[in-house]
Amino acid sequence: MSGAEKTIGDPEMALSEAQLESFSHQGFISLGRIFDDAQLRTISTEYDLLVTDEAQVLGNDEEGFFPYRAMLNFRSPALAAFILHPHLLAIAQQILGDDIRFWWDQGINKKPGSGSPIAWHQDNGYQRGRTQEFLTCWLALDASDTENGGLNVIPGSHQAGLRPHTWEGVHAVIPGDQLDTADSVGLDARAGEVLIFSSLLVHQTLGNLTADRQRRAWVIQYCRGDQHNEVTGEIYDNRAWAVKGGVVADSLESERPFDLVRERA
Ligand SMILES: O=C(O)CCC(=O)C(=O)O
């Protein structure tokens, strides 16, 4: 398909005014299903090849480890193609505008019995306060709830801007004494559903307390085309274009190569 054929103005793909309002107020919404059954099977198959105990894990000795892997798109052309899915990008366009870069993707499998949490944080916290708000899309490959390590969020918490984070190992965490979690809610998802949230929304996932329900999530993030490092002023032109001038890119390409090792440092 040519870029011109993939212009994403189709009103059937768009969020309603009420959904946009809710996203703006609460900082998250559920999109329901964006991918069809065959697409979800392909995503699951590719994901399971890459997100394994053998490849990379998060967690700790006491509570248990679980598979994690960053930038699945580098290793799977099929997954890279889904990052350019027109429906997902139609929604991203309503939030981010006509010029969008792909920021990051990661697979996180909270496997049964792994009690390790990913503690309260904002996704911007991982950037050490260097960049603007961006958009996180969280695809539940399995049903996800509080029991099996699903998301907890603090509705509206994105509106107060970036909170201070400290590093606990590889995790950026908001210290407990600086956070009121009384209003937090579980953000459950059925298998195949996509949740989207602001990178400033305060959220966590607890451990998977079940014996037999894995909780695989594929997280895809997008940012504005002019996303930049507020310290150096540099545009993140190592992030591939997803949409340019309202037209979906044919493939993920950036002006500068992306170096995963450097980004992790
Ligand atoms: O899926 C998870 O367990 C954690 C997801 C998360 O916190 C994130 O993507 O920022």
Overall description:
The structure is a single chain. With 265 residues, this protein is an alpha+beta fold. It has one domain: Jelly Rolls, CATH 2.60.120.620. The protein contains 5 helices and 15 strands. The protein has helices spanning 17-26, 37-50, 77-83, 86-96, 260-264, and strands at 28-33, 57-60, 64-70, 100-110, 118-121, 135-140, 151-153, 166-168, 171-173, 185-187, 193-198, 203-205, 215-224, 241-244, 247-253. Strands 1, 2, 3, 4, 6, 11, 13, 14 and 15 form a 9-stranded antiparallel beta sheet that branches. Strands 5-12-7-10 form a 4-stranded antiparallel beta sheet, with no helix packed on it. β8 and β9 form a beta hairpin. It is globular and about 50 Å long. The termini are far apart.
Largest β sheet strand count, sense and barrel closure: 9 strands, antiparallel
* Gyration radius over CA: 18 Å
Proportion of helical residues: 10-25%
Order of helices and strands: HEHEEHHEEEEEEEEEEEEH
What is the number of independent domains? Answer: 1
**Class by SSE composition:** alpha+beta
Weakly predicted, low-confidence segments = 1-6
Strand tally: 15
Ligand inventory reads: 2-oxoglutaric acid
Short description:
This protein has 265 residues and is an alpha+beta fold. The chain has five helices and 15 strands.
